[in-house]
Specification:
By secondary structure, this protein is mostly helical. It is built from 19 helices and 6 strands. It has a 4-stranded antiparallel β-sheet with strand order 4-3-6-5. A two-stranded antiparallel sheet has the order 1-2. The longest helix is centred in the first third of the chain and has 20 residues, at 22-41.
């Protein structure tokens, strides 16, 4: 969970932290006893469990925040306004210079560009300024009990208890986001166990403290293990030719740079498309907005956070930290995106017409986009796969 999401959630739900009804709290306490048996069976010391769970309660702000995630619900241009703001760029460049020796050593060790490590740090915690304040055990126990993300919550909760048991962090300092992400680079507990590193050699993988070294190296190791290729771009802004078949712009339709160029795709700045791994075309806000050719490193960023808005933001912020510029084509900010409830309505209507969206979760992801494209093709309108107000209006007729 990145810093932008936490800031918005805390602002919206500041007044929602009061205790839930007594009956819900009693059920939560009963659930804890059942979960304790599971944790002990997976190697957790029962005394550590009791200490970790002492005095926690069902956290209403966690439940509410789980239903509001800006990277999936805000228009991308609004998300980018905060994620890649002038102050975020300026502070990113300052931190990149300040820690250039450390970042250079981390880059050389893990073969991950230092600018993208810095950008992830900026997105996840505003360069360490907002690492989260919610007790991780309470946040994850709430998610595990609440039901919507029970499997996630239980798995992460066991991992968090293992982190406490290993001594990497004290119970008092195990703080993070409502979703259980922790530290400078907001690792979830299972990712921490698998990929966090002790860069400074003090015997602990400390991503929570004032020194960001372990956290930055851990983020680099995460990207490295997921296939990052140093020196290659995440993506470039492109211009599509008149009459281009938007159905080809699909994250799963990867073609060589030569193939896209044969179809008339050009870099927005007039240069040639980089000839690295196969690229996919991405229209995150539909026709009339910036279009990107995205490469393997884009998909690696999505392993950190699957949101398209997040991945574009990390990529663009890393470019800007390295001295690059903003996008050439402006966002059509008057285009009204759908609310979460409206996306659920759109998904329901598409599925009812035989265009399956793979569920109705209120997130316009890849399956929803595929369903939109199929529907647009079926009625002979411009195909861009974008969940818009006009599309919902057509489906509602």
């Amino acid at each position: 969970m990145n810093m932008l999401s936490r800031s918005l959630a805390s602002g919206i739900f500041l007044l929602l932290t009061a205790n839930l009804p007594v009956a819900a709290q009693e059920k939560f306490i009963a659930w804890q006893q059942g979960f304790k048996a599971q944790a002990v069976a997976e190697g957790i010391d029962p005394r550590l469990f009791d200490t970790a769970f002492a005095n926690i309660s069902l956290n209403r702000s966690v439940i509410e925040a789980d239903r509001f995630q800006p990277e999936f619900s805000k228009p991308i241009w609004a998300y980018l306004d905060s994620a890649v703001s002038p102050s975020r760029i300026r502070e990113g460049r300052q931190n990149h210079r300040r820690l250039r020796g450390l970042l250079r050593r981390i880059e050389n060790r893990y073969k991950v560009d230092s600018e993208v490590i810095t950008a992830i740090w900026g997105l996840e915690s505003n360069y360490g300024g907002n690492r989260g304040s919610i007790y991780t055990i309470e946040a994850l126990a709430t998610l595990a009990f609440d039901g919507r993300r029970a499997r996630y919550g239980e798995r992460q909760l066991i991992a968090a208890l293992k982190i406490l048991q290993a001594g990497d962090v004290s119970q008092r300092n195990m703080r993070g986001s409502w979703a259980g992400a922790m530290g400078h680079t907001q690792f979830i507990p299972t990712s921490f166990l698998a990929l966090a590193v002790d860069w400074d050699g003090d015997g602990r993988r400390n991503i929570w403290g004032e020194n960001p070294a372990d956290a930055l190296a851990s983020a680099a190791n995460y990207l490295h293990e997921n296939g990052w290729v140093r020196g290659q771009p995440w993506g470039v802004e492109v211009i599509l030719p008149e009459g281009f078949d938007y159905a080809l712009a699909d994250i799963n339709n990867r073609q060589s740079a030569q193939q896209w160029q044969r179809l008339g795709v050009r870099r927005a700045d007039g240069g040639q498309l980089p000839d690295y791994s196969d690229a996919a075309l991405l229209l995150p806000a539909g026709a009339g907005n910036p279009v990107f050719a995205v490469y393997k490193n884009f998909r690696v960023i999505q392993r950190y956070n699957n949101s398209v808005s997040y991945a574009i933001s990390v990529g663009n912020l890393s470019d800007r930290i390295g001295g690059g510029s903003g996008f050439i084509v402006p966002w059509a900010r008057n285009a009204a995106e759908l609310s979460r409830d409206q996306i659920i309505d759109l998904q329901t209507k598409l599925t009812a017409r035989g265009f399956s969206t793979g569920g109705t979760d209120g997130i316009a992801g890849a399956k929803t986009r595929t369903a939109i494209i199929a529907f647009q093709q079926s009625i002979g309108i411009e195909v861009d796969g974008f969940a818009s107000q006009s599309l919902l209006a057509r489906l509602s007729r």
